[in-house]
Amino acid sequence: MAARAENADAAMPSQAASGVPSVAPRSGAAGSSGAPLRIGGSAASFRRARRGNFVITILFDVLDEVLYLYMWVVILAAVVSTLVSFGVLDTRNRIVWLIGDFLYRATDPALRPIRNLLPNFGGIDISPIILYFIIMIARMLLARVYAAVEFGNLHALLL
Asked: What is the mean predicted confidence (pLDDT) over 104-109?
């Protein structure tokens, strides 16, 4: 028993030397030989060691997906609006009207404040482009906040 414990201590490299945290096997686990349990690379080992932040990961992923989908809704609203204004799509068609109305109702609350701030450019509406960039910036900031919360690295918040 004592020799086995010495071999296990000699086989486990220090966390600082290797840079990869290892998870020690549970006593009585199947196949536990005293050697450290390695799970793939460092990222998998890190995820295995920090299982408590799973809910935070889900929340950030859902928020990111909602922003991503809204970005596509803004793009579709701009395309449909352009096609309707050029007469390519006829709003007398019920399906075209329903899709256009949904896209208008989904994007207008976010586009209206931007349109109020912009000067008049004639018939050109660049507010969807500005909203697209705002959503992209929000997604980048969300990724930085997630990295700061999940990994405890405040350096990720610095620009």
From this structure: 96
Q: Give the integer Cα–Cα distance in Å for 107 and 72.
A: 11
β-pair partners for 79: none
Confidence class of residue 154 from pLDDT cuts 50, 70 and 90? confident
pLDDT tens readout for residues 3-43: 444 444 444 444 444 444 444 444 444 444 444 444 444 44
Cβ proximity of 42 and 19 under 8 Å: yes
Q: How far apart are CA 53 and CA 30, in angstroms?
A: 27
Domain ranges of the chain: 2-49, 52-157
Distance CA 141, CA 138 (A): 5
- The tokens for 47 are 């995820």
User: Taking the CB of residue 61, how many other CB atoms lie within 10 A of it?
Assistant: 12
